[in-house]
User: Fold this.
Amino acid sequence: MARDDARPVIRLRSTEGTGTTYVTRKSRRNTPDRLVLSKYDPRLHRHTEFREER
Assistant:
């Protein structure tokens, strides 16, 4: 199966400024806005907000 631009690879960066990132894919059709998820930040040992960077 070919990879296309309908599900691009995005990088989620911590809003706390630790530099921690997660890499995932998202659907542009279902989620056209920037993604914001609460994920675990191992440098802070707690959950924080991670925002999509482009």
